[in-house]
Structures are given as structure tokens and as C-alpha cells.
Amino acid sequence: TDSLAASPQWLPSCPDVAPRASGVPDPDTPALLRLSDSLLAHYKKSTRPVRDWRTTTTVAIDVMVYAILSVDEKNQVLTTYIWYRQHWTDEFLQWDPACFDNITQISLPAESIWVPDILINEFVDVGKSPDVPYVYVRHHGEVQNLKPIQVVTACSLDIYNFPFDVQNCSLTFTSWLHNIRDINLSLWRTPELVKFDRSIFMNQGEWELLYVLSHFQEFSVVIRRRPLFYTVSLLLPSIFLMVMDIVGFYLPPNSGERVSFKITLLLGYSVFLIIVSDTLPATAVGTPLIGIYFVVCMALLVISLTETILIVRLIHNQDLQSHTQIPALCLRRFFSLTSLDPAAKLNHYGCEDPREREVAGGTRPAPAFGSVAEGSPLMPSILHEISTIRQFLEKRDEFRDVAREWLQVGYVLDVLLFRAYLLAVLAYTITLGALWSVLGGVSPP
Asked: N or C: which end of the chain has fewer CB within 10 A?
């Protein structure tokens, strides 16, 4: 601005006072009105305002970010609200302040003068920008055009690190019609002043402005998402469910409570994923890391449930349980027959091992209890039945020993699998946290 003001300018001579309707000059005409009439009387806004067509019009531009309105990951669109400033020198809008009551600055309608056709290359939609109908013109010809703009631009949004993502979107200003020989774009302020200028930024929304990089006519707006809301609503519930799954390993594996507990956790996590599916950003480019995190957590819950089912199946062996139940049934049948009806027939093979009966084949007549007399075959039959019961009791003890050994094996496998599962969860958590901390952290260049 100072260089433009200090450069030699062509100043016209003082014009005559505006005439009255009768043709006689009116000395009471306001200076602003006389100046406006003098500047716009023979002005042609369709022509670039230079006296020598070889002269390049230098347009200095500046951008100040006011707010981040929305970030549409699905359509890859960024909506920002900026304060846009530009100034240039119009050689046809110069005057001598001494001729107009020392006026050095005047506002003129923007539609009445030449305005450079500066557009943003990334524009995809017309925003709801307020109309600013005036521009400021200084006496040496410098025109300042300041206006707020709602910018809807295309931006390549990377959501891999959601919700710890950082986005970098460019705003490239260029003349739509003129080339660099006619209009040359430059920066109004130095890149150092532009980078960390957050004086007007409204920083209470979801996005935080890190810095604005400027290079010639391009401005790169770097923003970062505030992850607190997503951490509370997405990550913490998932972490709590995984912790409860680990705590569930402390339930005894020989009871059925652990299986039902883990099934309940799996169903709860499925409902949680359905609820949060609308919160996750959806794009056709890639999947966010948090989506992979949820899928792996679901897989870990399934693996945990599968491990619990295998351990419970190993401990509760159905073949072992069936052999331990046979002697009790035989005892109840024997004493019921002998006490209630001495003449009743005792089914001998009712207390036998079913596999022995299959080997014997067919049916064997049961001995009958006759009258209690000396030499009756009742006593040998009773002794035979008691001997059979004793054999089954011995077998039951053997089966119990075997079941106890399988129970110990199940406990050992359960502890080993729990430790492996715990190490896998911890390694996955540390890896994911390191990725988010490394990829989410950004330092200005």
C-alpha cells in the first residue's frame, strides 16, 4: 500500500464547479458530490484502468478465516466463512485533494467501476454471502474491496485418523479471463503475518484453525477436529465393553454364567455399533481407523466367546457325566424293589453298563425273589447285585478322577488363553494409540 501511494501518479487539474440548471456554476455543491461526479462522469468500467495497455494491474489479495461452517466428508466439500480483501490501482480514479476540500478517500458503488474478475478455483457452490455494494478509493487511485464470503469449495478430505484428523484445504485465487500480463496477483500481507492470524476466528465449533499458509495466490487452510465428543461417545463405551469382557474371564469356567455373560456383551456391542454407525463419516475413498478398531473389537469378542465355549465343553464332558449318574439310579431301583415288594423281580441288567448289555446281546431273565426260605436263590441274586453296584461305584470314582484331571487341564488352558487374549488386546490398544498420536499430531511447517 505504501509503495502504491509513494509511486508517481498522474493527477488531473481541478475541474470546474458543477453548474446549475441555468448554466451558472454553483459554489455550494458538496465536495463529495463534486468529487463523485468528476470521477464517474467519463469513466468506462468495461476497460482495464491503465493509461498504457502494457502496464500490468497488480492486485494484492488477503484472506482471514472467520469460521468453519461444515465439513462434508461424503461429498468432499468444505464450507468456510472468510473475510476477503483485495486492492489495486485504478489510474482513472485519481484526484488532487486540494481541489475537493482535502478529501483523500471516497466510497463508490462497486458496480460503477472496474473490478478484477478474481475467483476461487475450488468453488463448487455459491454460498450465502452478504452483498457489499461499495468500495473505498483513495486519491492516488488505490481501490480497496473488502467483503465477507461464504466459500463452498472442494477439498480432498482424509478421514483415516477420525476423530483425530487434520484437514488441509486450499483456496486458489486466479483471474478467470486475464493472464499474468494483464493482472498479477500478489499477497497483501507477508506469509508470517497470515499464518497464525486467528484474531477474528470463531473457535467454539467442532473444528480448530491451526494456521493458514499463503504462497502467491494460494491459501492453505489447515484445520483440526476437536475429538472430545467422539472420544466420550465412541471410544469410551467400546473400551468399557472390552474391559468387561476381560473381567468376565474371572468367572468360573465350569459354570454356565461365563458363556451367557459373554453372549450378552457381544449383543450389547452389536447394538452399540448400530447406534454409532450414523456418527462415523462415510466416504467412498477409504475407511477410518476407528471403523477398523470397532471391527477388530467385535472379532476379539467373538474369539473370547469361542474360547469360553471350548473350555466349558472340555470341562463338562457328557460321557463322563453319564457314567457317574448310573450307580445312583441302580441304588434307588434296588432298594425300592427289595423294600416294597419282596416278591418283585429285579432287573439285573438295569444296573449294568449299557455297553456290557449290548455285548451280551439279547435279554437275560431276571432272577425272581421267592419266598424267604432256606436254600432260596434270593441271597445269591442280592449278592450279585451288590457286587455289580460296587463295581459301578469303583468305576464312578475312576471317572471322577479322570473328570478332575480334565478339569485341571481346562483351567490351565483357560489361564493360558486368557493371557494370550489379554496380550493381544493390550498390543492392539498400544498400536492404535500410537497411530492416532503420531498421525493426528501436526506441527506447523
From this structure: C
